[in-house]
Design a protein that fits this description.
Elements (H helix, E strand, L loop, with lengths): L3 E8 L3 E3 L13 H10 L4 E5 H6 L16 E5 L11 E3 L1 H14 L4 E3 L3 H9 L5 E7 L7 E2 L11 E7 L5 E6 L1
Parallel strand pairs: 1-6, 1-7, 3-4, 3-6, 4-5
Antiparallel strand pairs: 2-8, 7-10, 9-10
């Protein structure tokens, strides 16, 4: 059984993007980004929501493209329509069973790459096994929360922490 890992950048006040979904205020270059890119190579499957997937359109990704070509990609959405033969879409009603099936059949960890609503839903269904937070030295004040609609409180155990020169603090948590 492979873990589902929510690996995401988060502001110091708990938001993964501003109210418009913009994440450009997060620091970009640096050792923490190199470490994130190295972790990406360890994942075999990417799981994301519709908003996270379509965010890529602003950067030239075409509908149906796989934003992580080195991984199998699954989108959880009830409304997204993509060309046949592109990334896999699962309706939310079937997503819990689909993710459990992927966890049991995968040979590498699964990467939950967003967003906050999907992460909150996955947490409330007991699907997330680990959090990998890149805590950025910014305060957004409002925006897309790390977990939207998740039950609170929940317990986690800090298993790793690294402070990077750019001010980003990486934390890994076991749930």
């Amino acid at each position: 059984m492979q873990p589902l890992i929510y690996d995401v950048a988060v502001s110091a006040d708990g938001f993964i993007a501003d109210t418009n979904g913009d994440a450009s205020r997060f620091p970009h270059p640096g050792q923490w980004v190199d470490a994130y890119l190295a972790r990406l190579a360890t994942y075999g499957t990417a799981i994301m929501g519709r908003a996270t997937y379509t965010f890529g359109y602003d950067f030239g990704m075409a509908p149906g493209d796989n934003p992580y070509p080195m991984m199998e990609t699954h989108i959880i959405s009830d409304s997204l329509k993509l060309p046949i033969g592109s990334v896999t879409i699962h309706p939310r009603a079937e997503a819990r069973d689909q993710i459990r099936g992927l966890k049991s059949s995968a040979d590498k960890p699964l990467y939950l790459c967003g967003g906050g609503r999907l992460a909150g839903w996955a947490l409330s269904h007991g699907l997330i096994d680990r959090l990998r937070l890149k805590r950025a030295p910014i305060f957004l004040g409002s925006g897309v929360p790390l977990f939207s609609g998740a039950p609170a409180p929940f317990a986690a155990t800090l298993t790793d922490q690294i402070a990077y020169p750019e001010g980003v603090i990486y934390q890994e948590w076991a749930l």
